[in-house]
Amino acid sequence: MSAPLRLGLAGLGSMGRNHLRVISNHTDTVLAAVADPTPEALAAAVEQTGARGFADPLEMISTADLDGVVIAAPTTHHSAIALAAIERGLPVLVEKPLAATVDDAIAIVTAARKHGVRVQVGHVERYNPAVLEMGRLLRAGWLSTIYAITSRRAGPFPARIRDVGVTVDLGTHDVDMLSWIAGERPIRVYAETAQRIHATHEDLLFGLMHFPSGATGFLDVDWLTPAKRRSLMAVGEEGMFELDYLTQRLTFTRSNVERPLMIAGYATTFTGDVAEIPVVSIEPLRAQLDEFVRVLRTGDRPYVPGEDGLWAVGIANALLTAAAERRPIDLSDLPSRLNAE
Length: 341
Prior knowledge:
By secondary structure, the chain is an alpha/beta fold. 36% of the residues lie in helices and 26% in strands. The strands form three sheets. A nine-stranded mixed β-sheet has the order 16-13-12-11-7-10-9-8-17. A hairpin with a 2-residue loop joins strand 14 (262-263) and strand 15 (266-267). The longest helix has 20 residues, at 306-325. The chain is globular, with a radius of gyration of 21 Å. The protein starts with a strand and ends with a helix.
């Protein structure tokens, strides 16, 4: 049996504490070091896990004996921490978004290529079992043509997020997910944003994504809804998938191919048959850590590599540009700009 992998954790915010829990409870990992500038949070983590504590994540990376680093610090710190780890040859699992800006995301991917280090991005929804099952059924041909994909990600305002707006913080989940479902990158985007509660950034996004195949994606993302909502719908020629990320419920509604009959001048409506798709419930964050363990053990390319995180940041920033300039943004030159192909 191989010895447990020694991981370092940078950041003890909301997601950082979740990472601490899954790392500590995983049979193949041990939390060897943890870093956070808040003394109380750091002391509690050290007492709970026995890990070495550091106020500075860069000091943790330079002095602790680690096999890999999980980065859950504020988004604007992702680049500096990731680059420090990569330069020491340490693979990283970076919470989404990969970085706050396109330039920072490019720097991470470029450094990883130069040093031959694996970068995995925490787009945790990709590990949701309902998403994985829908992806399997899509590949099996349940929808031969996708017409539209609609995603809603809404909830109360998180006071912890001050460095970026809802588009980069949450919207990156959905631009990644819609691209994954469509099986292609968008070629044009448009958006409207609003700032209602956040002191410095937008807290509402309505975004449109147009794909080469003709499929259209719609994003509804906000920090204004008093209850958490996480849902996705994909409509195509044969029917419609609907999933709830939170309950991990997945259904498929088959299109009714019968031509409507005219009764007294009105067309009757035929509702498609609804099938509940069985899904084995798992915790996506745990599945994501399983993948990071696999990457560390084998050196293989991650399921969600740095390039995918870079694309998500690039598309999210294009949406912000579209909203600011009140015009559609053509993404035909984005592959060359990101150097991600």
